[in-house]
Specification:
By secondary structure, the protein is an alpha/beta fold. It is built from four helices and five strands.
């Protein structure tokens, strides 16, 4: 089954990846190393640029989402929501089209 979304774990703690990935199976989770980043906005922007898909889901290493959380996020985006934050900025998703229309996250913050 081809997925039309990418899920990124932003963290500087690679040891947390396995537990989070397990909670989301069979979803594929990309680890994005946040070490040395200037700020959160920069990390999100880099994930958007690296994403091979139109829909991007971002989560922090403090979250333990499930496949149901992913599917709910994707469903709401497909229904027309511009930004879906199930757990504020700990787990959120959007389409790249949103970034093309309003711009990327402001890296000055």
């Amino acid at each position: 089954m081809k997925r039309d979304y990418s899920i990124f774990l932003i963290s500087n703690k690679p040891e947390k990846y396995a537990k989070i990935q397990e909670s989301m199976l069979p979803e594929l989770l990309y680890y994005f190393d946040g070490t040395g980043a200037a700020n959160f906005s920069q990390l999100v922007n880099k994930c958007v640029e690296a994403s091979p898909t139109e829909t991007v889901i971002i989560l922090s290493d403090r979250m333990l989402p499930t496949q149901a959380d992913v599917q709910r996020t994707v469903s709401l985006l497909d229904k027309g929501f511009g930004f879906v934050g199930l757990y504020r900025y700990g787990f959120f998703g959007f389409k790249k089209e949103l970034m093309r229309k309003i711009g990327m996250f402001d890296e000055r913050y």
